[in-house]
């Protein structure tokens, strides 16, 4: 009796170790692959972005680039009812088992991002990283014929790896992969896979490929006081509303143009490109094309134009709303940080602190990932002012309601 | 049509604001109340602990103290099927709506903790804080006749407030309240209430009542490298096993003595007291009675006895397994930190770093709250070595399996 029990326990234990080992190996593979392809994305993007900055006339080819992107998604983006044009939403639906992530999605979004960046659309690249993360995971899933439950976990670890590699923040990446796919709960059963994939991808990117990530420095954090907390809450409401406005405008433009041009993505993006050219000429500066890292960095140090946040909001909503691709995190960082910078003229808080708060809160409200956003603040700003960032994340998360970057996030229970 | 729509939206918005305001007000009330009563707990406990240290003979009254505690729980601890002796488990079940938290639970566990501490049982006080947090919330719930769903959230914010106040860590408190009640997912809908209660309780304790919390300093964090990660994983497995062993022994003693003495908690605790006296005489030191803060602090600075971790494990398992009360977090901190200290003689990592890892990992494995444990490391050690702490939390969380301090935690999905 006892011997049989022990044998059974040993069996169970062996099983447990076997499952764990499998996960560690799979997640390591995903980490290395996703870390490597993300490095390619980051380096190529930097090169193309610099090329555009040196050759500002490239912007006039943006409408043609739009036709190319539209063509790719219309004629090569679909497979058995799954549409790569859904972007991050398709990855999220893949995790929920509602759709199948397409392996071709990663390569397509990479090329689309390169085109968008080279010709001056306003975008980031994190979406591309995440979709490629999903594609790589999907490749492994199909190769090893992984079952549906494990499919979820592998896709989540692909997201984690991509986020960690794209931003140089492994802890945030791990949490983000678990938190992004649902609004309101985290799936711990994917914890190990996400952490391993995240760390491996991060170190692959930094150590093996030598990628360096941007640093934003918060110079001063105010003393903890009720008055400061009140100020942080007030500005965080604004950051949340900013993000809400962006999401509404971006999705509104998408819906409107899809209807107007009867889902012809080539015409949609062509017109979008024309609008971006017009806006660029109108505003008389290239600050709102591409990622806009210069002004983002500037917003932590010195004054930026007071309308910068709204300019970036419109540029990005048009770019991504008409079918260009890339990523929305860096644009949201930009909007939040520049709004923070602008607010520093009327709110008595240090400029770099307001910029940092705006960066994190705008991202949090858009991505609906408060815990990941809090970790992002810890990894970006070395844990400074963590109490304030928690409050900023909470407030912006609540203000944004059930709106966000990705309509496919499932909602579990009301936020309040 | 449009006007009706706008009116409806305005109505919805007003509703939203009203609900939010209610939560902020209720959570603030809980924060102030729980912060204040926790201050009383901490100050009284410090006083009683010092009294015991100055009068070591008090230990000989521990068996009599046990009878008192047993009497309280047997004759005053039950009400319509709900048993205060379940301790934190009753609070957890209250959140899940399976039981009703008793208002009397807090006062009883306070008195029980005072007795345990004065007469030298090995215990902390965090359990008492959390149960009182639950009682205070329950008082508010019954006073305002709160509905079942909101009852959950109020209880969770009571837990958050208590944790924040007991440890001086508001962010960890907020996360802990959400994470403790379930194993494997967090309930974000309680986010706002937990954060507000946690912050208010923390500042009530520190600013209004002048409570000071212990500081543990990690002197050196090793450079990030694969070798160091491997070492961290190896020691974290040991910390996880340590916690597992403690939980098994503690619950084993409880089951065994309950059966042996036919649920007569007075005899159970009397015998438990005798065993503690015998153990204390045997080991010839009072280091393992009470909270043991001196040795816990020492373990970050200089060598402690190599058997300290196992001594504390046995002392605490006997104390709490036979019906004394208080808390298990500080004892777990002690076990983990002293095991880390002992390991520093064979593992080439800085002593204070190993002690810190042990403290966090042992707590994580026992409480099954990896994200809260990670935040605890950030708040305790100023964000130093966060990558290592994440790995330590993950590993110890996995090693501990589905065992933990509180059997009432529900399990959502497998951990692996």
Highlighted features:
disordered C terminus, about 0% strand, mainly alpha, Clc chloride channel, about 70% helix, about 425 residues, 2 domains, homodimer, two-stranded antiparallel sheet, globular
Summarize the structure.
The structure is a homodimer of 416-residue chains. Helices cover 69% and strands 2% of the residues of chain A.
Which strand order do you get reading across the main beta sheet of chain A?
Answer: 1-2
Largest two-chain interface: A-B, 40 and 40 residues
H/E element order of chain A = HHEEHHHHHEHHHHHHHHHE
Q: Provide the helix percentage of chain A.
A: 55-70%
Unreliable stretches of chain A: 411-416
Shape of chain A: globular
Total count of helical runs of at least 4 residues of chain A: 16
Query: Any idea of the CATH class of the largest domain in chain A?
Result: Mainly Alpha
- Amino- and carboxy-terminal Cα gap of chain A: 53 Å
Number of domains of chain A: 2
The biggest sheet of chain A, with number of strands, parallel, antiparallel or mixed sense and barrel status, is: 2 strands, antiparallel
How many strands of chain A?
4
Q: In percent terms, what proportion of residues of chain A is strand?
A: under 5%
The CATH homologous superfamily of the largest domain in chain A is called Clc chloride channel
Oligomer: homodimer
CATH architecture of the largest domain in chain A: Orthogonal Bundle
């Amino acid at each position: 009796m006892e011997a049989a029990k022990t044998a059974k326990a040993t069996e169970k234990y062996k099983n447990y170790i076997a499952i764990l080992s499998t996960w560690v190996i799979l997640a390591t593979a995903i980490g290395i692959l996703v870390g490597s392809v993300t490095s390619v994305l980051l380096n190529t993007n930097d090169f193309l972005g610099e090329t555009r900055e040196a050759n500002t006339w490239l912007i006039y080819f943006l409408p043609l680039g739009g036709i190319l992107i539209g063509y790719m998604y219309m004629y090569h983006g679909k497979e058995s009812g799954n549409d790569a044009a859904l972007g991050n939403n398709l990855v999220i639906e893949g995790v929920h088992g509602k759709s199948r992530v397409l392996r071709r999605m990663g390569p397509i979004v990479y090329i689309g991002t390169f085109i968008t960046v080279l010709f001056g659309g306003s975008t980031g690249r994190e979406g591309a990283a995440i979709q490629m993360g999903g594609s790589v995971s999907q490749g492994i899933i199909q190769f090893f014929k992984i079952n549906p439950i494990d499919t979820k976990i592998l896709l989540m670890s692909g997201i984690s790896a991509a986020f960690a590699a794209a931003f140089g923040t492994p802890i945030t990446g791990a949490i983000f992969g678990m938190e992004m796919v649902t609004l309101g709960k985290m799936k711990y059963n994917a914890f190990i896979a996400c952490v391993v994939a995240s760390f491996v991808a991060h170190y692959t990117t930094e150590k093996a490929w030598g990628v360096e990530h941007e640093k934003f420095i918060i110079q001063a954090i105010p003393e903890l006081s009720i008055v400061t907390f009140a100020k942080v809450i007030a500005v965080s409401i604004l950051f949340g509303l900013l993000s809400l406005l962006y999401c509404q405008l971006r999705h509104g433009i998408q819906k409107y143009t899809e209807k107007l041009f009867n889902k012809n993505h080539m015409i949609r993006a062509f017109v979008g490109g024309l609008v971006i050219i017009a806006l660029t000429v109108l505003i008389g500066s290239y600050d709102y094309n591409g990622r806009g890292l210069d002004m983002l960095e500037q917003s932590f140090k010195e004054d930026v134009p007071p309308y910068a946040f709204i300019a970036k909001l419109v540029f990005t909503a048009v770019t991504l709303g008409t079918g260009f691709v890339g990523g929305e995190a860096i644009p949201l960082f930009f909007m939040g940080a520049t709004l923070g910078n602008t607010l520093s003229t009327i709110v008595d808080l240090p400029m770099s602190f307001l910029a940092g708060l705006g960066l994190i809160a705008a991202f949090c409200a858009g991505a609906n990932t408060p815990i990941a956003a809090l970790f992002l603040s810890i990894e970006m700003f070395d844990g400074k002012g963590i109490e304030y960032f928690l409050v900023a994340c909470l407030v912006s998360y609540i203000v944004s309601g059930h709106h966000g970057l990705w309509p496919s996030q499932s909602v579990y229970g009301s936020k309040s």
